[in-house]
Write a structure and sequence with these properties.
Layout lengths: L15 H13 L3 H15 L1 H8 L3 H7 L8 H10 L11
Helix pairs in contact: 1-2
């Protein structure tokens, strides 16, 4: 997954397993912009207004932070992932 792909939002609406699979592909790139853009895609697929309410972050802030053009704070990333029923997990690379 060289770049965050556009997606059919209905395929991801309420499916944390599919969201996690999509985000894992983005994480495998080790490219910050790709990862942030992928999280942004999932935010839009889930509904920016709903995630804004669930995270207490503004809609504008979500759009701006997860456009792929900036680096959102780690706390904001965790808040968004939690709102999507997804969590980060560390695993060894070797």
């Amino acid at each position: 997954m060289p770049k965050a792909q556009t997606l059919n939002a209905s395929a991801y609406c309420d499916n944390p397993k599919r969201i996690a699979a999509y985000l894992n592909k983005a994480l495998e790139t080790n490219d910050t912009a790709t990862i942030v853009k992928a999280v942004g895609n999932m935010i839009r697929a889930q509904g920016v207004s709903r995630l804004s309410r669930n995270t207490k972050l503004s809609r504008e802030g979500l759009y701006r932070s997860f456009s792929g053009q900036s680096k959102p704070g780690f706390e904001n990333v965790l808040d968004v992932l939690t709102a999507m029923d997804v969590k980060l997990v560390a695993k060894p690379t070797k």
